[in-house]
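BUG: 3D viewer hangs when loading the predicted structure for this chain

Environment: internal workstation, default settings.
Expected: structure renders.
Actual: progress bar stalls at 90%.

Input used:
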Amino acid sequence: MAHILAPSAQWQMRLSNKVAAPVNPMTGKMWSSLVMKKKGTTKGASKFRVFAIKAENSTINRLDNLLNLDITPFTDKIIAEYIWIGGSGIDLRSKARTIEKPVEHPSELPKWNYDGSSTGQAPGEDSEVIIYPQAIFKDPFRGGNNILVICDAYTPAGEPIPTNKRYRAAQIFSDPKVTAEVPWYGIEQEYTLLQQNVKWPLGWPVGGYPGPQGPYYCGAGADKSFGRDISDAHYKACLYAGINVSGTNGEVMPGQWEYQVGPSVGIDAADHIWCSRYILERITEQAGVVLSLDPKPIEGDWNGAGCHTNYRHLDFLFTLSKQMLRLSETSYITKAVVCGCSTKSMREDGGFEVIKKAILNLSLRHKDHISAYGEGNERRLTGKHETASIDQFSWGVANRGASIRVGRDTEKKGKGYLEDRRPASNMDPYIVTSLLAETTLLWQPTLEAEALAAQKLALKV
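Structure tokens produced before the viewer hung:
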């Protein structure tokens, strides 16, 4: 979506007589794109700027100037946007407050509160919910020293409220057995862009369908790629914020996109995903487009939207980080960097046997994971469109139709990663990342159950 750029003082408007006195004068509801030319220059495309102007006044210009004000030369105060998860467990809420000076750590920020009765998280007669700052990111919307603050929610007595899934995740990730294994995650967040008024995918004819899937995945062109400006704006905003985004690409269904976050250690992966979702919500808000994390936004022969969660070999990532300086193939980068985690044991020699043991544990807790992997996931996990059946656990090497996929490189080297392809696009990353750590590192099945699972899955551990 094109941005509205206000001219600085050194620019002037150059209009012909025809523009100054049009046959149909502009009204307050009409807009014109006008070329702005820098004083004293006649050449070079870089000398021009395009902006929108309202006929009667320059309200938009003045508003834009105020939004872009840099307050750092005039005050040490900053704006902190406190962000938390609402009552549905997937909706994001936020409000801003002034902080006296820049901060570097969440512990420097005060706790705050909000009206939980308005978010479905507290009764009206006792509606105060307390939010604790947990993670800080740079604010790409306000710039300067301003920040975005990821928070979790508690009662006034200090108890985590039911929708606070971060609290339990922090407990799991602080367990000595988990911290010793240094779990790294890479998460592929898929999403769909919808037209605001009709809630139909961006680029689709209203009430109709585009051509069949095939040309849209990583495609280019006005008839194949819809929403690239939003994807690119989000990509840059996340990097500015300090979110560890490793790539992005157009997905199989037109109007659907994906970005990848990681590698990130432990709970940081979930904090980064939640902040990246908030930034995406704000960008689509500005663009007048609706963000959907529905796992199956369009029924029929169309791909759903998932949030594949990966363990990845750290030696591979270190090598890749050096290779990226020499690579220019976007498709390779976005698909290779996406996977971001392994446990220490998985990435060492003999790690494939550890991975197979983790797969056994995951198979035995399949129902527990499915119940926590996102609402409406049964509409996506049908066994079609690169998914496994929701009712059956499966695994395979390089198999995108399995519950758990193991990379071909992992099999070859005998160490590496596993990818859980079951989580839906609307999953809670606090739940998914911590549940993976709990199941693979802390939970111990009975020997009998393990033996039966190994036989069923044809695994030798």
